[in-house]
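Shipment paperwork, digital attachment
Item: protein structure file
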Amino acid sequence: MTAAAIVTNLGSQGALIAAAFAVLQAGGDGGDVGLVAAARTVPLVLFLLVGGALADRLPRHRVMVAANALNCVSQGAFALLVLVGEPRLWQMMVLAALGGTGHAFFSPASEGMLLSSVSGEQAGRAFALYRMAMHGAGMGGAALGGALIAVFGPGWVLAVDSVAFLVAASFRAFLDVSHIPAREPGGGMISDLREGWREFVGRSWLWSIVVQFAVVNAVVIAAESVYGPLVAEEELGGAGPWGLALAAFGAGTVVGALVMMRWRPRRLLLAGTLCVFPLALPSAALAVPLPVLPLAAVLFLTGASVEVFGVSWMTALHQEIPEDMLSRVSAYDWLGSIGMVPVAAALTGPAEQAFGRDAALWGCSALVVVLTAAVLTVPDVRHLSRRTTKVATSPTPPTPSATPSPSPPSPSTDAEGTVGRAG
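Attachment content:
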């Protein structure tokens, strides 16, 4: 599973940059880049819940293989269009939407598979190791993608991503899932979704952080996927420097994962949420704008901080959510975390025209700070403690603050480029 994630991230991080520059190369502007980003995210939002329910019914690795196959085809067609034709905006939006559909079915299945594959006190270290491998690949993919775009153009980077999805699907087809307990069939799709919803709303720490990230992810992704390439094109020298800055974010996540392989904070979500505040820094850095090296340093710090949150979040989900609910809860998590992303992406162009790009970027930073401070007022976010045993049943758990703490202990996304979601 880790090998497949490495291959996927190597291609996808460069492809995220390539898609934006393909739009600009075709004569589009910031608003067009935002529309293509929104086109990818709309079907992701629409199909996530179905994908989560399906992944809790079928073998999760089979769902992942089918999703990878769809992404392989859509990225291959996108690459062909850019390489041999004159891509139109609507064509790029359609292909981006197909990619988002694949992601909608892949993400809940992938997270459910990962969370069900580890156990015991070493879960946090396992998640940190997985995320370190994933983000390390993303770091290399971003740097390589930026360089390849500068030399060969975005079409070839999209083609590489298509091949990466094909290779990843081959790996995932042969995953050993014998350790995962068989799941009883539910009472129907709607019934399964209702059970997942009860699991989700029954925990204040879960829904409050997802609500927080509904806005945080939206503004961060909008700033980095739309305003970032524009600032890079106008102020930093193009795709190469922007790829370097994004690679620094990936390097930061690797360092953060290394830290979380040794550090086991007792109050998981308190430590993680405090590390969300640095997500306000990249938008501020683009608003200034900082030169490439200071911008890379900011993104490095942000990546390290995000990883502390990501590992803490995954550990909390692992210890609190029953195995048969993992993909459905993950789907609600993903839906809440990215639900506002299409709106934010589509509004980047109008916001830039109405307020100016600098003011829009400063507004993104302010929202991150305010919402992160607000979620710290939730008692269960401050008090949820690390435990050594996993919750086995559901639906309505005791509040984390009432759970006895273990003895003193001896840390995503997504996604997954940028923040991706609450985890």
